[in-house]
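Proteins fold reproducibly. Look at a sample protein:
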Amino acid sequence: MGMVALTYKVMPDSNVDDVSADDIAAQITALKDDVYDVQLCETKPLAFGLKFIQVHVVMNDGSGLSDIFEESMRAIHGTGEIEVLSMGLL
C-alpha cells in the first residue's frame, strides 16, 4: 500500500468569537499519530488581517482515511472551511 500526501487550506470560522488561527494550528499538529503524519502546519496571511492554516499531512492510501482526518480537523473549535489544495501519491 502506498502513501498519500495531502495539503489542506483551513480557514478559521469568522462567526466564532475569539478564534485564533495559531491555536487551531497547534491543535491540528496534535492530531499526528501512527496513521497521520502532520509534517507541517503553518499560519499564513490571507488579506486584511485574516489568516489561514496550511496543513501538509502524509497518510497511508486507505479508503476513508482522508475523510476521517478532515472530520478530526472540523471537530476543532473555531475551524471553518477546509479545502484540499493538493493530493498526490508518494
The chain is about 20% helix and 50% strand. Residues 65-74 form the longest helix (10 residues). Helices lie at 21-29, 65-74.
